Amino acid sequence: MEFWSEYLSSLLMGFLTTSELVAISAPLGIILGIALGASRVYGGIILGSFARGFSALFRGFPLIVTLFLVFFGLPEIGIYLPPVTSAILSFSLCSGAYISEYVRGAIMSIDQGQSLAAKAIGMTKLQEVLYIILPQAIRRAIYGISNEIVYMIQYSSLAFAIGVQEMYSVARTYNSLYFKSLEIFSLLAVIYLVLTALTTLFFKGLIRKLEIPSKAE
Amino acid sequence: MIVLRAEDVWKRYDDTIVLRGVSLNLKKGETKVIMGPSGAGKTTFLKCLNLLVKPDKGRIWIDGEEITSPKADITRLRQKIGFVFQELNLFHHLTAIGNVMIGLTKVKGMSKSDALKKAKETLKRVHIEEELWRKYPAQLSGGQKQRVAIARALAMDPIVMLYDEPTSALDPGLSSEVLLVIKELSERGITSLIVTHELGFAYEVADEIVVMNRGRIIGGGSPEELRNAKNDEVRNLLNKWNGLKDGVLV
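ok -> structure tokens follow
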């Protein structure tokens, strides 16, 4: 009983840390992804190249490398970030790079007529992108974005490697103390499953809310 | 008073010269119709007028200001030109009333309540019933969509309306409701330049019909003058359209 009481209370703390990581990294990653995706299409040579380079870079090596670079590498140039901040920064950069791909693809799929019609009523390029193209593109990209956020819940466990006391880290510690692997990781798996299911449900609701009616009602 | 003037407009796509020095004037309150076979350059010319397509050569003035000037404020000048596309380019994510309001709020900077009032008035003007105002484009028929597109352009208070084959994407049954709206607007003195294949409609609504072929204006005149056109090329084209014989409706 003592094990379960201790484990559950520690796991709750870990759960809160995992939730904090995802709740902050997800919106940052989405905003970054939208900005990068739009820059890749509309950013011209300089901004477009930067966005392409950024996306290629952060999709080009494993997240754990980004985590180590941010947490262990940056202090060598005088930038010290706490573990949770390092993890949030790494997750945001990584998910931003992947989400930018979904957003770019979605923007490219919007038919040219929408852009022409926006121009024809006197919209500037920025107005056209903000009010006409992105609202439609984000609706198309949201399926990919929701998938990316579900992945983020899974890969948030990598934060243990830089000392963040999230759920997986707590489970790992308890396993090394009590060797009750089946109980410890089964419960952890259930919690991840619930988190994933709740996130999926949230996005399903959001998709329903944003859906553009397509047939006569 | 001339509100729209195009002078010697040229446009080339790769090796194909689409416009070969097209010039045209449009007077306030006038309705001019451009006709011509597919590939004549009608749509390209119309899109050149508000720089949706940039001409390679030539100058265009709208309300006395040259839109082709490098110093032109193109987005401001475009607001003076209402453009209705053949492809029913309504904004898919906005309702009918949202489509009309977005230009008013975001481009003209009107308050939401003023824009809503104006959008409602304009939708009524093109005979879009109130129960359709909150429908999305995909929930509207082709004719309804095109009338909303006309309202979207009209709400911006343009000094000229350009229609690019506004009925070509519609079933014949739906064309008439759109043509009726364009005719009504034209009769109320809205300056209009219409590209259409509907010869009967052109005869009915136009003050002047301009005939284009292979990137050039090859003839034109009032509907009466066109019925008795002497130019062989113009007569041959007219004969091909809408079951005409010798340029006269049969």
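Chain B has nine helices and ten strands.
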